[in-house]
Prior knowledge:
By secondary structure, this protein is an alpha+beta fold. It has one domain: 3-Layer(aba) Sandwich (Aminopeptidase), CATH 3.40.630. The protein has 4 helices and 8 strands; from the N terminus they run ββααβββαβαββ. It has an 8-stranded mixed beta sheet with strand order 1-2-3-4-5-6-8-7, sandwiched between helices. Helix 1 packs across helix 2. The chain starts with a strand and ends with a strand.
Amino acid sequence: MKIDTERLVLAPLGPEHLESTHAYAADPETTKYMMFLPVDSLDETRRYIADCVAEMQKPVPGYYEFAVLLSGVHIGGVSLYFDTAPDLGELGWIISREHQGHGYAAEAARALIGWARDALHIRRFIAHCDADNLASQAVMRKLGMTLTDASGTRKNRGSDELRREYLYELTI
């Protein structure tokens, strides 16, 4: 299964993406606003990818993780999780530092929303971010998402500090 956009290809995350995933997932600057990153080791990244592969092989996956490819080069990831309710998808994205600022996260997330709408009949989407993550907030606004809650808190893996969290939503 692949999803094509004007500039990108979204392909299921797999073992062939180990080194490139680890490069951005272990980067403290790229992951400073992330709850579950940065990763500590290549083995942690390997286990994560193995879990993603196993999940995608289930008849009804609880989440989808895609590698974002630009001209065949793996530059990031985009995800859709179903933790809250089966008709509600939670979006996530990460783009390697050297590829940020070119609209790739919004393009990938928009394509994933379209695929989820058409293939899975999902009409409601949410995304969370650290209140200081202005880049992710911009992506959410580009997607047509609306800030619906600014009262949440979170602890990012790379920090001991309790942080504010924003919740954005989109219904299509």
